[in-house]
Amino acid sequence: MALLVGGVGCSHVPAVGAAIDNDKVDEPYWAPYFAKLEPARAWMAEVRPDVCIVVYNDHASAFSLEVIPTFALGLADEFPPADEGYGPRPVPVVQGHPELAWHLAESLILDEFDLTLVNEMPVDHGLTVPLSVMFGQPAVWPSRVIPLCVNVVQYPPPTGHRCYRLGQAIRRAVDAFEGDERVVVFGTGGMSHQLQAERAGLINVEFDTAFLDGLVSDPDGIARIAHVEYLREAGSEGIELVMWLVMRGALGAQVREVYRATHVPTSTTHNGLLILEEA
Ligand code: DHB
Ligand code: FE
Reduced to 3 DSSP states, what percent helix, strand and coil does the chain have, rounded to the nearest 5? Predict the structure, then answer.
């Protein structure tokens, strides 16, 4: 069976991608943040996943308001970086894993999660920035990637509880896959941030810290956080944190916190990085 070897929670701030792409990582603004990534990248090099299931959100790059899937699974052989207005990021094309992706589709849908199946999907910073954070700038991404896109842009997004249970279903599917792939699940986006209107720039370190603590030791409690609480406490984009609950659900009841790094601010976002393994 395939083996789930860990979970990663990771923000997807586009400015982080731009700093990497434009050789700014050693600049005074960025150097303290990038120094915090080294242990995470070392863990990734040691764990060497064959496949990463990256739970992320699209920012009107693959989907627009014409079609808004709650959960969309990428089944393709490859996923090109999306043009986000300044052209695509200069990162490798993401290589998919159609065999495991189709297994996930069958297992999850028969497990009563009604996914949208996507055969063609460009991937934006929501997916490529977490890959850059964890892998740096390789010529080819060292792991295959199955994108699982979650609507957190247009109200109503799925609840945290639904995301947590989707993660548990992903785990059942991975365990039942007849392969020997090593799998890491990413939950991406967050933490507290608000990009527009009166509270633009909102950061709530206290809320984010409690969220990370709870994700480790009380995921059932964290899964009950309501949309309005994310909005009030973590700003209008803080709802992205529900995607971390998919990652947490894929791990067992007891986890070990391997690494945590947070940084305030990157752009206007409280940036979070969390690595979990099963205890
Ligand atoms: C920023 C953060 C995001 O999550 C995003 O999608 C766009 C911008 C930011 O912090 O600038
Ligand atoms: Fe975002």
Answer: 35, 25, 40
SS3 of 62-131: the string is CCCCCCCCCEEEECCCEECECECCCCECCCCCEECCHHHHHHHHHHHHHCCCCCEEECCCCECHHHHHHH
What average pLDDT score do residues 34-56 get? 98
What pLDDT is recorded for position 182? 98
- 12 neighbors 125 (Cβ within 8 angstroms): yes
- Which residue's alpha carbon is nearest to atom 1 within ligand 1? 13
From CA 257, how far away is CA 133, in angstroms rounded?
18
Q: Which of 274, 263, 191, 264 is nearest to 234 (CA)?
A: 191
Least Cα distance to 128 among 156, 163, 93 occurs for 93
Does the beta carbon of 13 sit less than 6 angstroms from any atom of ligand 1? Answer: yes
**Cα 69 from chain centroid?**
17
Any ligand 1 atom below 6 A from CB of 237: yes
Residues 60-91: tens digit of each pLDDT: 999 999 999 999 999 999 999 999 999 999 99
Report the distance separating Cα 179 and Cα 3, nearest Å. 9
Please enumerate in sequence order all residues whose Cβ is within 8 A of that of 42, keeping only pairs 6 or more positions apart, or say none: none
Per-residue pLDDT, 11: 98
> What is the mean pLDDT of the segment spanning 246-252?
98
Region 166-187 average pLDDT: 98
Annotated catalytic residue within 12, 193, 263, 270: 193
222 Cα–ligand 1 center, Å: 23
The residue whose CA has the least distance to atom 6 of ligand 1 is 13
Tokens of 226: 């309501």
